[in-house]
Amino acid sequence: MSVQRTYEEINQKIRDGKVVVMTAEEVIALAEEKGLAKAAAEVDVVTTGTFGPMCSSGVFINLGHPRPRMKIEEARLNGVPAYTGLAAVDIYLGATALPPHDPANADYPGQFKYGGGHVIEDLVAGREIKLEASAYGTDCYPRKKIETTFRLSEINEAILFNPRNGYQNYNVAVNLGDKTIYTYMGILKPRLGNANYCSAGQLSPLLNDPLLRTIGVGTRIFLGGGIGYVAWHGTQHNPGVERTPNGTPKVPAGTLAVMGDLKQMSPKWLRGLSYLGYGATLQVGLGIPIPILNEEIMSFCAVKDEDIVAPIVDYSGAYPQREPGNLGFVSYAELKSGQININGRTVPTAPLSSYAGAREIAQTLKGWIQAGKFLLSRPAAPLPSVESDLTLKPMPQRVLE
Amino acid sequence: MVKQKLVLRFPSSLVEQPVIYNLIKNFDLMVNILRADINPKKEGRLMMELSGDESNFRRALEWLQKKGLEVMQLKQQIIWQEDRCTHCGACSVICPSGALVLNRPEMTIRFMEEKCVVCELCLRACPARAMETLLDSAI
Ligand code: SF4
Ligand code: SF4
């Protein structure tokens, strides 16, 4: 009789200090040595991690009310504009927002030295943030202007809410053109000068639960160094793509919307980034525990880099022009070796997502669970998976009169 | 034998002088040019590695300064701020000299300063801005 576990049984073991936890990297060797059935019987929880640039990230902030009160119409934090189309002192600061005076790519390739991601890093580090806000003024909110500073500890709420994080697999970016290009996938040298990839592969959360059997709405997670939750499926969630026999998608597929209290988080796991010629963004640390409810889930968690493939995509032509197709597939084991073969050419590879960071996150989460500080949560609702009819749609483009 | 990285700044009046030729011919030094540029004001900047006999090296520095060139000695030109580095690995395909390499299978980055040719490509290629240039100890 193969093993079956419930969330309740696992949480009881966590409370009793008897839980067995392994990272998604450690469990590979165990499964190979002892077989899936034994590995599933021994291990209660497998932890995953990823630490990569995630542009669809940002923070909801409630600044508190000034005296006299103000309905903020325009707000800047350290010079970076935040969205104010909410209630009086609620704002949303996005990771890729740029100060209006940033030369951007007018000075190509732009440096994007300080944007929303950097403000978020400064905020979570407890540094003083300058607020400049203006308003049209109303009878109930008469103030029209304010300039002040604040720190994270002094405001009511700061909620990290990232509409799309943790991509389940991603493109390998190359440049077939004859000049260097500057992309969100890094600097791509001409004529297949390098191939950049961006996934933790065998440690990546959604590649260890490819069919979303355990990760759902309400799953408790490691987010930015604190505890967060899966809020929904992420934007551009696309579960219906082609998969390998182990269930992992061959192209970018599932995504997660995640949220958590910024006040618990750490600047170590929320880092402002500047992508030359592209823009500012945020590197987000994300880790998800997977309960080994049965042997099938163990088989998913035992997936290794050799068995996960990613598509090679030309970012000088096919990607920007949104043309379908790719230059073939390559495994994460090949990508991590430092070079791959594309059409007979040897091409050096570089990651953009920190594998060392992913490993540390999976280890940290493992430590929290072993110490009884982190219980697993049963999802309140599943995320749309392969059986859903969700597809990824392009933008409707109509010719307007 | 000494080996030093130097930055020479030329006022516009000296940009057309055969400085390198003299360093080689009169002081018997080996010159390895790392970077050279002339700004719109016609002032030049030359970054190079100079090696040769110690007394010749010292005489060459005096000669350069007497001619009116500003000489900066580069002790540690590029620094890797380990605490800023996220070990993403993006720099490993940008660095042309093998000074920034990914240790495998640990997947952590290592900076080997002795291999760095001060091309400065990593400064802007590092998304976390963990690489810095430091011009210390001007002569
Ligand atoms: S690109 Fe920067 S952050 Fe990334 S590994 Fe290199 S030095 Fe570290
Ligand atoms: S300055 Fe150039 S050689 Fe030195 S570490 Fe940076 S990229 Fe490599």
Describe the structure.
- The complex is a heterodimer of chains A (401) and B (139).
- Chain A is 16% helix and 30% strand.
- By secondary structure, chain A is α+β, with helices and mostly antiparallel strands.
- In chain A, the strands form seven sheets. In chain A, strands 3, 4, 7, 10, 16, 17, 18, 19 and 20 form a nine-stranded antiparallel beta sheet that branches. In chain A, strands 6-5-8-9 form a four-stranded antiparallel beta sheet.
- In chain A, strand 19 and strand 20 form a beta hairpin.
- The termini of chain A are far apart.
- The mean pLDDT of chain A is 97.
- In chain B, 19% of the residues lie in helices and 33% in strands.
- Chain B contains three helices and eight strands; from the N terminus they run E-H-E-E-H-E-E-E-E-H-E.
- In chain B, strand 6 and strand 7 form a beta hairpin.
- In chain B, helix 1 packs antiparallel against helix 2.
- The mean pLDDT of chain B is 87.
- Classes of the chains: A alpha+beta (401), B alpha+beta (139).
- At the A-B interface, strand 3, strand 19, strand 25 and helix 7 of A face loops of B.
- The structure holds iron/sulfur cluster (2 copies).
- One iron/sulfur cluster binds next to loops of chain B.
